[in-house]
Design brief:
Elements lengths: L3 E14 L2 E14 L3 E5 L6 H9 L6 E6 L6 E4 L11 H11 L5 H13 L15 H13 L5 E5 L7 H17 L3 E5 L3 H7 L2 E5 L6 E6 L8 H4 L5 H12 L2
Parallel strand pairs: 3-7, 3-8, 5-6, 6-7
Antiparallel strand pairs: 1-2, 1-4, 8-9
Amino acid sequence: MHSTLVSLDAVSLSYHTKQGETQAIDNLSFSVEEGEFVALVGPSGCGKTTVLSIIMGLLKPSSGSVHTNGERTNMGYMLQHDHLLDWRSVERNVLLSLEVQHRLNADTRKKALALLDTYGLSEFRQAKPNALSGGMRQKVALIRTLATEPQLLLLDEPFSALDYQTRLRIADEVYGIIKNENKTAILVTHDISEAVSMADRILVFSKRPSHIKCCFTIDIDKKLSPLQRRNDPKFFSYFHRVWEELDT
């Protein structure tokens, strides 16, 4: 039985500007269980990234609350752009998050660099990021995030800057790494196919002020990779159901 890792209870958020008050999120409630992969989809500007910022603690909701499993759930944030430092080697980029958190020691260094070995990047340890492909850079960014051993991964359109073929391949590899490391993940994406192929559940957001219109539990074999799931007969049924919700 998995426990709830994070939950949002009646969360609302309003922005105050010179023009007045704008409500971005309206009475949003959902939870994510340990080991789950949840995708958030919705119209552009509906507040999906804002929700990640609230979960991360970067934004405080106007009302409602966010609960995590324990006093502090360690979270990792992976963005659309890898934000690797071009003057640091791959190895030193991976260790950067540990340095920032003052947690770099012999043990954490060994674990972090072992991830490079495990996921096929050991020969690039001393390379600079500009020598890597876009997909490899995203893998390095994920490993940098995993180096701090987060319980929850927040993925904000991490593949959208990649070309289509690379996007499919890297989504497959990143999904495999996340599952292999037994991580919980929340993915923000505009790509319905990506959501259906990767997620256990999809939450469909409304237009702003956003609330959850509906939730789809994806009943496709979890042992399949995202690429394999795209060939499942149920894939297109889920795709069209999500599309219909977004289109109304």
